[in-house]
Structure formats: C-alpha cells, structure tokens
Amino acid sequence: MSRAVHHAQVRWSDPDQLGHVNHARYLSYFEDARMELIGTSPSGLAGAPGDRGYIAARVAVDYLYPVEYRPGLSLRVETWVSRLGTSSWTLSQELFDGEAPVARCECVLVAYSYADRASRPLDDDERAFWKELS
After folding, report:
1. Does pLDDT of 43 surpass 90?
2. Coil, strand or helix: which one is 100?
C-alpha cells in the first residue's frame, strides 16, 4: 500500500489554554493533506461548472492522544485509499507526532459533476490515480 505524506506545521494559535492542540485543528491538518493530494490528482482542484470535481460526503475522526504544543512542531499526515468504488472512495489518514499515531481519520469522497450537480463515475485516469494509493 502506497501512502501520501504531508507535513502539517503546528501554529502558535493551535493549542488550547492547557497547551494541547485543539481537536478541531486535527480536522484542518487532515483536510490540508487531502487538498494537497487532490491538487495532484487528474481533476486537480476543479470547481468551475462543467469541471470534474470531488466533494466530501463523510468525515470521521478518532482521537488517540493529545498533542502538546512545542515551538516548531510539525505533525505527519499519511493518507491512502482504503476503498475504491464506482463514484466514491474512502481516504484513510493517520496523524503522527514523531512515530506515535495521535489521530485517525476516514473521509468518503465522491466524484462530482458541477455541471449536473450530481455524483458521477470516476473516469479511467482518476481511478488509476486513486488506485495507486490503495
């Protein structure tokens, strides 16, 4: 299984008053990793009418351990395809502080036609791209 790797820079404003990275920031780290990956896909970051696009249908996060803020902290997000269907697929993601996993995420993405305002089957080039990560 091939995994895409993204490094998320933790900002000074990300922790709460106790010094733990706020749980909502984890969602941002996962989203940034997905958007970086989608940007390299055959459809890119499409969105204009008629373009091929992708939309998120479901996002679920399991928080394993709190991350304590440290200056210069960078967290690693690993992303891979755990299920590939006709018009949707599931991206699984893990967030690491060093070698320790601190959160897991599942995001169901749907291939979307902005012109038709409806889901659509993945095209062959898209399927091949996402299959490389499964």
Report:
1. no
2. strand
